[in-house]
Design brief:
Elements (H helix, E strand, L loop, with lengths): L7 E2 L8 E11 L5 E11 L6 E5 L4 E7 L2 E2 L6 E4 L2 E5 L4 E10 L9 E5 L2 E5 L19 E9 L6 E4 L2 E7 L5 E11 L6 E4 L1 E9 L5 E9 L7 H18 L7 E7 L6 E2 L4 E5 L12 H16 L8 E2 L5 H19 L2 H20 L11 E2 L8 H34 L3 E2 L1 H12 L8 H4 L5 E7 L2 E7 L14 E8 L5 E3 L7 E4 L3 E5 L8 E4 L8 E3 L4 H10 L3 H27 L15 H16 L4 H7 L5 H5 L7 H18 L1 H10 L9 H23 L6 H7 L3 H14 L1 H15 L3 H12 L6 H9 L9 H14 L1 H4 L5 H16 L1 H7 L11 H15 L6 H10 L2
Parallel strand pairs: 2-12, 18-19, 19-21, 22-24, 25-32
Antiparallel strand pairs: 1-23, 2-3, 3-9, 4-8, 5-6, 5-9, 7-8, 10-11, 11-16, 12-15, 13-16, 14-15, 17-18, 20-21, 25-26, 26-30, 27-28, 27-29, 27-31
Bound molecules: arginine and zinc ion.
Arginine binds next to strand 20 and helix 2.
Length: 878
């Protein structure tokens, strides 16, 4: 096996032999052949080292000068597939390296690439080595000066990090722009963008009195869609000053929106590059969810300027140092800007739907991984979202004020450095005089802890179980903050932890809490606000769940109770379908048979409660949402996906019937106003979306239709239109087809909007879905080279079209694997995302498992398989 397929280990970290103090890099841009000249001042860091090993991939080497002298191959240097080794037995040297690259042929969208008339870079994690030879590691910090020369006057903007020093027209007609970034930075934060854009300008004066020029660059003709991004940026700048005392540190902040991008966005110093779907918005084309995501991602990248850029990571194993922390910061920001409860529910759904699955699969890893083959595979829900949950627990345990003290100390100690997660926790400990040694296991231990709760006569017993994961056989007890209370029989809520703060810390394998007599027949309310990223096991009766729903003070706890009720009912239907599968005489279609009177009554009681309580619109909407298939799937072993899908559908139909009057009334009560993105209106529209979907389902069960077409025509915004489309997709396929044609006519020209159209098609439950996918791939707006299109179409199918993807003949699996064989050669990072649902193979019943296994084995033997897929497949098939 080639050495490149050997994983790196966190324990093997060694400081760099050399440093690169300054980089003076010039580009003569051309799509086929861009010339790069890179002049570096290097310094020896470890005495005795006499070979400077520079990383380099897919570069055409031209020449090397060492201190002004032309170097000779095999005497002064050797070239190999992954870089350049330079014999250098001196403490200081000036190197000048020339190489060329071909941006137009770079379909991986990593390094410098050229697509639809613009140049763009993406360097995190290890893309800079595809631009020039370099010490491409985050603990090598350098000062950059960048020169861009271009002979195409139509490219109005030639951008890089920092401040613009020069912008001149050369005698030969070419344009030359020079940038300098005064802050030392790792290579992954380098950026270059050259293209023709429209530009939105604004300004912000920082708390330190700095006047900052703010610029948002978008495709021409889209300036009117850039305003929300700009106002989000200003809100984020203000919030970080107010909340953490952190102000911006350059005179210019640029955001560029591009259509071809592997991920959401990138925090390059002073020059953020964004996927256009996280910048562009107007009511007609963007949903409330888009508005929310734009605000939070703009904030996320902005917050990186301190957590990531000013203090960066020592090595890539420390990724959560910047990502977990920055996600936590953007979450807090969103909670302040919108609805805190709505935000928390969204965050918890991500954990339960995606992170728990990742942690239960072959790619299970701690938030600080120990072993990595392809770093791009570790930009995961574990590193990001579980990482943010770990930071949130620190925030809970240390209190907001204590957390702030820790942050202040962290910046005081480490500004300008490349550090580790341990350094971060140390600052939190020192600033608070706390001992976090057991807490730190959250950084090193993978897997989702399970906390079992038992109500024994006069006490509550809590037990934690940490099952082995493929990457780690032995586990230790974690330090778990559990928000906990008890409801007495009358519904009064009581704290029960010793300190009566409402949070009990479970730090051993088992613990007990004694209960006063009046609570000995009470009902626990547990893990309120998802105070730790764990699963809870408590055997509530259906009546007890309803007791929590009715009487818990916290809206979060009410929502969580509704989710438990639905999960429980779906489990009952699933189990009864299992009996039916073994008994051919039974009637599988009559879902009422799945439930006894008491079970049906529990749903009626839930709706009755919603009708008489006065809960905010968004809480009602959330309570009327059944957990997704993916969220439920994690609770099953030997899962039969089509049986779970039917059970899910059965409960959905029953809920639609039970909630029919409730939904009808709430739909009638809606007072529709012209679209505005503000919280009360967002809540109202969220409730509309949930109710219309259930209502259309209820009517279709009665053989009645609903006038979705005229409602669609009247909607003045994308949020309502999409709600109507989704309702039609699930219940009224004729209306769906008609609306989709209408949608395409109206939005066919808008790439960002058309992603919604592709995704709706891909998730439609229909028997001919695979031939549909073929047709859609031939659509003029589709391109296999565009990650947004691939994710919208094939990604949505694999992640969310349960029926089609898990077709019993294996055709869905085969379709996705055929596609991955093609995509891997074009863009391995995107291929490695799309494969995710197939990695759950080992959790399925044997027939499904072997269908997936044979497809993955076929993929594994493919020639020139990327490192990205190799790493995931070898773990899955192990
Ligand atoms: N640092 C970026 C962000 O979270 C994401 C970079 C993702 N890089 C990757 N290779 N997947 O804001
Ligand atoms: Zn980030």
């Amino acid at each position: 096996m080639s050495s490149i397929l050997v994983a790196k280990r966190r324990d093997d970290y060694r400081p760099s032999d050399f440093f690169i103090d300054t980089v003076d890099i010039s580009f003569i841009l051309s799509p086929e052949n861009t010339e790069v000249c890179n002049i570096m001042e290097v310094t020896r860091n470890i005495s005795g080292c006499d070979i400077l090993k520079l990383d380099g991939e897919q570069l055409n080497f031209v020449s090397l000068m060492i201190n002004g002298r032309l170097a000779k191959e095999n005497i002064d240097y050797t070239l190999h597939e992954n870089g350049l080794d330079i014999n250098l037995d001196v403490d200081h040297a000036t190197l000048e390296i020339k190489n060329t690259i071909s941006p137009i042929n770079n379909t991986s969208l990593e390094g410098l690439y050229y697509v639809s008339g613009a140049y763009c870079t993406q360097c995190e994690a290890e893309g800079f080595r595809k631009i020039t030879y370099f010490l491409d590691r985050p603990d090598v910090l350098s000062k950059y000066r960048v020169t861009i020369i271009c002979d195409r006057p139509e490219l109005t903007y030639l951008l890089s990090n920092g401040n613009k020093l020069e912008d001149t027209l050369l005698e030969d007609g070419r344009r030359k722009v020079v940038w300098e970034d005064p802050h030392r930075k790792p290579a992954y934060l380098f950026a270059l963008v050259a293209g023709h854009f429209d530009r939105l300008e604004d300004s912000f004066t920082t708390s330190e009195g700095r006047e900052v020029l703010l610029e948002v660059f978008v495709d021409s003709g889209r300036l009117h869609q850039a305003g929300h991004a700009m106002s989000s940026l200003k809100k984020a700048m203000k919030w970080d000053e107010d909340t953490f005392g952190l102000a911006y540190d350059l005179d210019r902040y640029m955001i560029v929106a591009v259509d071809f991008f592997n991920m959401g966005a990138m925090e390059n110093k002073g020059l953020n590059v964004f996927n256009s779907k996280f910048v562009l918005a107007e009511p007609k084309s963007a949903t409330d969810e888009d508005y929310f995501n734009i605000e939070s991602i703009i904030a996320h990248e902005y917050f990186h300027n301190w957590t990531g850029n000013r203090v960066t990571c020592r090595d890539w194993f420390q990724l959560s140092l910047k990502e977990g922390l920055t996600v936590f910061r953007d979450q807090r920001f969103s909670e302040d800007m919108s609805s805190a409860l709505g935000c928390r529910i969204k965050q918890v759904k991500v954990m339960r739907e995606h992170q728990f699955a990742e942690d239960a699969g072959p790619m299970s890893h701690p938030i600080r991984p120990d072993e990595v083959l392809e770093m791009n595979n570790f930009y995961t829900v574990t590193v990001y979202d579980k990482g943010a949950e770990v930071i949130r627990m620190l925030h809970t345990l240390l209190t907001p004020a204590g957390f702030r003290r820790g942050m202040d100390l962290y910046f005081a100690r480490h500004d300008g450095q490349a550090v580790t997660c341990d350094d971060f926790v140390q600052a939190m400990e020192d600033a608070n005089d706390a001992n976090l040694s057991q807490f730190k296991l959250w950084y090193s231990q993978s897997g989702t802890p399970e906390v079992k709760l038992a109500l024994e006569q006069n006490q509550l017993r809590l037990t934690q179980t940490n099952k082995p994961t493929p990457d780690q056989a032995v586990k230790q007890a974690l330090y778990i903050p559990i928000k906990l209370s008890m409801l007495d029989e009358k519904g009064l809520e009581h704290t029960v932890d010793e300190e009566h703060l409402g949070t009990f810390v479970l730090s051993q394998e088992a613990a007990t809490i004694s209960l006063p007599e009046r609570l000995q027949h009470g009902v626990p309310v547990i893990l309120t606000d998802f105070s730790a990223p764990v699963k809870i096991d408590y055997q509530y009766t259906l009546d007890e769940i309803l007791h929590v729903l009715r009487f818990a003070q916290s809206h979060y706890a009410k929502w969580d109770a509704s989710q438990m009720l639905y999960s429980r009912l779906i489990r009952l239907a699933y189990d009864s379908n299992e009996d039916n599968d073994n008994d051919n005489n039974s009637d599988n279609n009559n879902d009422n048979n799945k439930y006894n009177a008491g079970q049906i009554q529990s749903l009626t009681n839930l709706i009755e409660y919603l009708e008489q309580a006065t809960l905010p619109d968004d809480v009602v909407a959330q309570i009327l949402c059944i957990p997704s298939f993916e969220t439920l799937a994690i609770e099953y072993t030997q899962l039969n996906p089509s049986r779970l899908q039917s059970a899910h559908q059965e409960l959905t139909l029953l809920l639609a019937r039970t909630a029919k009057d409730c939904c009808e009334r709430r739909l009638k009560e809606q007072r529709v106003l012209p679209y505005r993105y503000e919280q009360s209106e967002v809540n109202r529209r969220t409730l509309f979306a949930v109710c219309i979907r259930l209502h259309v389902l209820a009517l279709s069960q009665e053989g009645k239709g609903n006038d979705l077409l005229s409602a669609y025509a009247q909607a003045d915004n994308m949020t309502d239109k999409l709600a109507l489309l989704k309702a039609a997709q699930q219940a009224d396929i004729n209306a769906f087809d008609a609306l989709m044609i209408d949608f395409e006519e109206e939005f066919g020209h808008d790439a960002v909007v058309m992603d919604k159209w592709f995704a709706l098609h891909a998730t439609a439950p229909r028997d001919d879905i695979l031939s549909r996918l073929d047709l859609l791939q031939a659509h003029s707006q589709y391109s296999v080279k565009n990650p947004n299109k691939v994710r919208a179409l094939i990604g949505s199918f694999a992640f969310y079209n349960t029926q089609g993807f898990h077709a019993a003949d294996g055709s869905g699996y085969k379709y996705v694997v055929d596609f991955l064989m093609k995509l891997d050669a074009i863009n391995p990072q995107v291929a490695s995302r799309i494969i995710t649902p197939l990695l759950q193979m080992n959790r399925y019943e044997s027939t499904y498992k072997s269908l997936i296994e044979s497809q993955l084995s076929r993929l594994f033997t493919q020639k020139n398989l990327s490192k990205d897929l190799f790493e995931k497949l070898s773990k899955t098939l192990a």
